[in-house]
Design brief:
By secondary structure, the chain is mostly helical. Helix content is 84%, strand content 0%. It contains three helices and no strands. The longest helix has 25 residues.
């Protein structure tokens, strides 16, 4: 947790105008990957129920 906070402080010092954009982009990418893995894992079992 400390490393994440330190990275946030460092990013805020280096590029304060773009920190929110970088953080938002990484968060959205992670959410899309999570939903994608859920969809892929459920798509294989859908045919077994039919």
């Amino acid at each position: 947790m400390f490393v994440t906070m330190a990275a946030g402080v460092l990013l805020n010092l280096l590029m304060p105008d773009q920190v929110f954009t970088v953080f938002s982009s990484l968060t959205v990418f992670g959410l899309i990957c999570a939903w994608g893995s859920i969809i892929v894992s459920h798509s294989g079992s859908a045919g077994a129920r039919s």
